[in-house]
Amino acid sequence: MRGAVLYAPGDVRVEERPDPVIVEPTDAIIRLSATCVCGSDLWPYRGVEKLDGAAPMGHEYVGVVEEVGGQVTTIRPGQFVVGSFWASDNTCEICRAGYQSGCVHRVLMGSIGTQSELARIPLADGTLVATPGMPDADLVPSLLAASDVLGTGWFGAVAAAAGPGKTVVVVGDGAVGLCGILAAGQLGAERVIAMSRHAPRQELARRFGATDIVTERGDEGVARIKELTGGLGAHSVIEAVGTQESMTQAIRSTRPGGHVGFVGVSHDVALQGDELFFSLVHLHGGPAPVRQYLPELIGLICDRKIDPGQVFDLTLPLDQAAEGYRAMDERRAIKALLLP
Amino acid sequence: MRGAVLYAPGDVRVEERPDPVIVEPTDAIIRLSATCVCGSDLWPYRGVEKLDGAAPMGHEYVGVVEEVGGQVTTIRPGQFVVGSFWASDNTCEICRAGYQSGCVHRVLMGSIGTQSELARIPLADGTLVATPGMPDADLVPSLLAASDVLGTGWFGAVAAAAGPGKTVVVVGDGAVGLCGILAAGQLGAERVIAMSRHAPRQELARRFGATDIVTERGDEGVARIKELTGGLGAHSVIEAVGTQESMTQAIRSTRPGGHVGFVGVSHDVALQGDELFFSLVHLHGGPAPVRQYLPELIGLICDRKIDPGQVFDLTLPLDQAAEGYRAMDERRAIKALLLP
User: Fold this and answer.
1) Where do transmembrane segments lie in this chain (chains A, B) (predicted)?
2) Within chain A, which residues score under 70 in pLDDT?
3) Inter-chain residue contact B282 with A282, CB threshold 8 Å
């Protein structure tokens, strides 16, 4: 099969890789209908995360089940399925508490690589959620978004305690931040403030339900949020970048007793204990337990109540994955969808 | 009046200070029935927090109202009252959300000093809670504990989401940690694990409801907690120290999706973003909104359902405050009560 491999920073190649096979009796093999490039793929692409030799890439996926292992009982060949970037058993105590990304048997899909024609999905019964029948083709991008960026933005909004009566700020206008805006609205937030200075992203933020746009950053961004919230700060802030500046901005934009949901993969961030202490905020985040939300998100998408697939503003054949990486790296595209 | 003043690290003196007077029409003057030395008073006493000249000391207090300002409407002379270490209006949006320690008009009682015969209490209507009638003398230590250490331990337990079915770990065996144990039990926790290596504190931890004692610290402490929780970590961890080691131990002892309630005043702590991210814990803490819990805590104490006054294992006349500081600094006493 064809699949994307990162050889060195900036060097993504789509090449022949061995077809995946059932390794564990709990595995499934899927044929990908669509896959994509994630903002987090840019960390190794940019050389910020060290590479340990050539690495298969990708962890977002939707597709049709081709084959299942002998112990798979609920997933069947022919089903259209969506899964998260963590494979999880969905039965352990951590999964049952809703934290499938902390499953005691979890497998990181990025270590398998789903920017490819076929992929092995471990723990198929726990990981995969089948759609009700074969979805219309125009729903595929939104279902693919559910695999990571929508589920991650949703978790950010839940972790930030977005809900009725709340003012929610979203730091970061990438696909996850944009999906956080959508999630905050779905969860009933009264006001959703997007922090963005890019016109096309501002426009999508508005379409996803942002009521206000703030273009200032850092201390000025914090001051602007304070102005907009009677000097108190927001009830809820979703952090969807992962840098020291964005985390600091998120914490300082939150009122005492408010909630920060941080879902940007943290890079070189150190939080000062005394600042966090005196801020009185709630802080929660990490790798999103997307699996928890998949049934609900698939329902909303198939009922056409949400359309998160709009985050894909570039569609390429899988063989042109390198251009997808370049476009996202240069911020020419929000998110690149790849068709195997 | 007599009052304690810290002149330099290790140099606490009780001396004549001016009698407090009504400054704002929302003030009250109380005559202290009892006051005490806080673990956090030891930071400047030990020279860890810089002193900016001689400082009046103390922020915990119970006593009888002597006089009120012209705008005080609910507090009356003659009432026995308990207040928190933050004076707060209890009417602003932050207070109404339960975060009186983040009140937009808050005043730190430590800047006034309550290790004294009399004290001015700002925002008396918002700050003070009157007991139902004059309490029996033997209840005074417990009511004094409610002013800070009990309320702070309670907030730690709430922030750690202690409750039915939960295993709660308490890091720190000072008065706050011990009160956190008591609070976790009151909130219905199934199992409460105290981390302590001091026999008298272990004994009090047991009396307050600890079901297990762990004497290991650091990585060994974390390993022991994992052993006791099926490899997963605790649901809830109360951090009541404030150092890098204790925060790290608390976070690593918590399962994915679990809660850390941190109430030890943070000193020289830096949390690594990536560790926090991948831990998937909830983190919440800071200066406790004790005022929120006072009515409930006073009720439990006056009904003799809890006896947090046991944390006072040394009682001295106010004039011997210096010995109270020394005894706590040398860990000869858990907490020193001072009688004006």
Assistant:
1) none
2) none
3) yes
